[in-house]
């Protein structure tokens, strides 16, 4: 029973501290029967014991940490204590421990089965058995089978927590897929993570108009940073949600209340905007987005120039701090580093400025170009997509921003009610997404290990699979490390 709780090395160290005698040398000991289970353990029993031992430790440590966090959260927010089974310290650590145990068990079972199939002579005669054997001998079979352990995510009670974990793993998998395509040298020069940003900004822009509270504050603040050329800052937060009502009316023709005082307004909540709109404006989208400017191009240029100065100042400070923190590595080429800093500042400022400016100005473009039957709430998707194309300017630097925006857009899309019906009928789609992401990540690690660039992700995959010698099906037992014996021998030498 102790083998499921502590390792043989830890048990041997405990025996030494208890009896106060030195650890026997395994190479020169004469009693091999007594320590045979430590020096030459049976493969399957040792693997199972190690997996159970590690999963148990994950559960205990995770339960302690999350219980402390939960108690602090309840005390700060003055909430009532939930049931024991519904607390953070039980379900989430249990899910992680079951995931680890199942992933190791399934991966090792399939690897051992592949080793036996390769050693078995002859081929099965029926075609079905041959196909089954070829499928089992595939290099991606262990990774695919081990990914079924992702079903353990169901034990987490909060759907938002499951959704957040699934989307995070999915975006990391997409990142490594893009890396695999770039490593293969088959992708065109313009391909990269920036291609995700137009779709992400389209969803974020639509969620902003609909008043989605799940959009992060930084994206909401960036999209709502109105200068005087666009919607007024004070009225903007109240007027932007009204734009969805105007879009449902398919943007009717605008007639100024100054010229036609008895004209009925499309929305009573936008009276202040319509009263301030210039009488020469003809399109309702122009009256809503830039009521004080007649020219759409003039409003776009005015916004871009003013916002570019602010963004350039912010990015120059940010990149200057990074430059000073790594000043020692630029001593040989200071001028080159300064020119690179200026180049990065210009590209990042242009990207952020033009993406927001184009998103708002594209509303006017869509009303001028598209037919009236296509002018609906979907126009905000088109505007956000056109604004996201500005990411091409900074496609090599803002990799983290592109992935973070994609993650936020997916969370916003999943928490709205505009999902397709076939997704609403699937039970726990976030769990299926998590399983598919784990399978793809495992396959990428097997076939394209260079695509997984994060050292933390590599270590996590190795922990989920177990020791490397087990994953490769090797039967040789590596010599056990004795860190405690080294420290003990040093103390004995000092005492002597």
List keywords for this structure.
single chain; Tmem135; mainly alpha; 496 residues
Query: Could you tell me how far the N terminus lies from the C terminus, measured between alpha carbons in angstroms?
Result: 38 Å
Shape: elongated
Low-confidence stretches: 26-41, 469-496
The tally of strands reads: 0
| Share in β-strands | under 5%
The residue-averaged pLDDT reads 77
User: What series of H and E elements makes up the topology?
Assistant: HHHHHHHHHHHHHHHHHHHHHH
Organism: Orbilia oligospora (Nematode-trapping fungus)
Protein name: Transmembrane protein 135 N-terminal domain-containing protein
Notes on the structure:
The protein is mostly helical and 496 residues long. Helix 3 (43-77) packs antiparallel against helix 4 (88-119) and helix 8 packs across helix 16 (379-388). It has a domain at 193-418. The protein is elongated. It has 22 helices and no strands. Helices cover 64% and strands 0% of the residues. InterPro entries: Tmem135 (IPR026749). This is Transmembrane protein 135 N-terminal domain-containing protein.
List the helices and strands and how they pair.
Blueprint: H1 8-19, H2 36-39, H3 43-77, H4 88-119, H5 127-136, H6 141-146, H7 159-183, H8 197-210, H9 217-223, H10 233-239, H11 242-248, H12 271-276, H13 284-289, H14 296-325, H15 334-369, H16 379-388, H17 399-414, H18 421-425, H19 429-447, H20 455-465, H21 468-471, H22 483-495
């Amino acid at each position: 029973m102790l083998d499921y709780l502590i390792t043989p090395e830890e048990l041997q160290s405990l025996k030494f501290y208890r009896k106060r005698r030195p650890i026997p040398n395994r190479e020169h000991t004469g009693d091999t029967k007594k320590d045979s289970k430590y020096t030459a353990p049976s493969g399957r029993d040792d693997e199972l014991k190690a997996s159970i031992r590690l999963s148990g430790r994950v559960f205990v440590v995770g339960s302690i940490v999350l219980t402390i966090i939960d108690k602090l959260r309840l005390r700060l927010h003055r909430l009532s204590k939930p049931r024991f089974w519904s607390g953070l310290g039980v379900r989430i650590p249990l899910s992680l421990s079951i995931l680890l145990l199942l992933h190791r068990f399934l991966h090792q079972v399939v690897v051992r089965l592949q080793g036996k199939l390769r050693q078995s002579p002859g081929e099965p005669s029926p075609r079905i058995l041959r196909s089954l054997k070829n499928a089992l001998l595939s290099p991606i079979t262990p990774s695919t089978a081990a990914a079924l352990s992702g079903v353990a995510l169901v034990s987490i009670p909060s759907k938002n927590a499951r959704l957040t974990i699934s989307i995070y793993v999915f975006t990391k998998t997409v990142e490594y897929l893009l890396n695999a395509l770039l490593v293969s040298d088959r992708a065109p020069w313009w391909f990269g993570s920036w291609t995700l940003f137009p779709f992400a900004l389209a969803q974020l822009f639509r969620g902003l108009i609909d008043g989605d509270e799940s959009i992060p504050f930084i994206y909401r603040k960036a999209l709502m940073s109105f200068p005087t050329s666009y919607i007024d800052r004070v009225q903007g937060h109240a007027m932007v949600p009204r734009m969805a009502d105007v879009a449902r009316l398919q943007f009717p023709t605008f007639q100024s209340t100054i010229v036609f005082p008895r004209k009925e307004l499309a929305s009573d909540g936008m009276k202040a905007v319509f009263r301030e709109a210039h009488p020469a404006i003809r399109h309702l989208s122009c009256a809503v987005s830039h009521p004080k400017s007649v020219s759409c191009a003039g409003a776009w240029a005015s916004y871009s120039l003013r916002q570019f100065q602010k963004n350039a100042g912010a990015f120059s400070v940010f990149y200057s701090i990074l430059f000073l923190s790594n000043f020692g590595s630029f001593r040989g080429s200071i001028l080159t580093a300064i020119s690179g800093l200026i180049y990065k500042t210009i590209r990042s400022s242009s990207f952020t400025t033009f993406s927001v400016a184009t998103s708002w100005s594209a509303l006017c473009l869509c009303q001028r170009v598209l037919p009236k039957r296509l002018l609906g709430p979907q126009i905000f998707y088109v505007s956000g997509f056109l604004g996201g194309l500005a990411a091409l300017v900074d496609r090599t630097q803002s990799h983290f921003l592109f992935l973070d925006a994609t993650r936020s857009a997916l969370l916003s899309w999943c928490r709205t009610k505009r999902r397709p019906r076939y997704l609403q009928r699937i039970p726990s789609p976030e769990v299926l997404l998590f399983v598919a992401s784990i399978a793809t990540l495992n396959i990428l690690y097997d076939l394209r290990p260079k695509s997984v660039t994060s050292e933390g992700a590599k270590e996590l995959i190795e922990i989920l699979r177990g020791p490397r010698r087990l994953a490769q099906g090797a039967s040789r037992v590596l010599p056990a490390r004795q860190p405690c014996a080294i420290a003990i021998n040093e103390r004995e030498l000092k005492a002597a």
